Amino acid sequence: MTQQVVLDIVRSGLMAVIMVSMPPLLLGLIAGLVMAIFQTVTSIQEPTLAFIPKILAVLLALIAFGPFMLATLVQFFESLTGNFTQFMNPGF
């Protein structure tokens, strides 16, 4: 296994992680931003108020983007297992 093959595996793994984690993180960020603006406008300084909307946003993101996230992980796993013989070094 050459360095290029290892770098390709790592690169595709990192892209899979980014693609899977991006929807819940972005929706949680947007929910937190909206709650921060709401708290600023209404002068409510309760730090625990933003947790419920963030949790709901992440839960909704997991429900809405779950099939896409699962398909991305399955595609990555299949690409790893499909090229398994390429990763084996016959010299050992």
Annotation field: number of helices? 3
The H-and-E topology, N to C, reads as HHH
The separation of the N and C termini measures 11 Å
Question: What's the story with the biggest beta sheet?
Answer: none
Structural Rg = 20 Å
Structural category: mainly alpha
Into which percentage range does the β-strand content fall? under 5%
Overall pLDDT score: 89
Shape: elongated
Which segments are poorly predicted (pLDDT under 50) over 5 or more consecutive residues? Answer: none
Helical percent range?
A: over 70%
How many runs of DSSP E, i.e. beta strands?
0
Description of the molecule:
This protein has 92 residues and is an all-alpha fold. Helices cover 83% and strands 0% of the residues. The chain contains 3 helices and no strands. The protein has helices at 3-42, 51-82, 84-87. Helix 1 packs antiparallel against helix 2. The longest helix is centred in the first third of the chain and has 40 residues, at 3-42. The chain starts with a helix and ends in a 5-residue tail after the last helix.
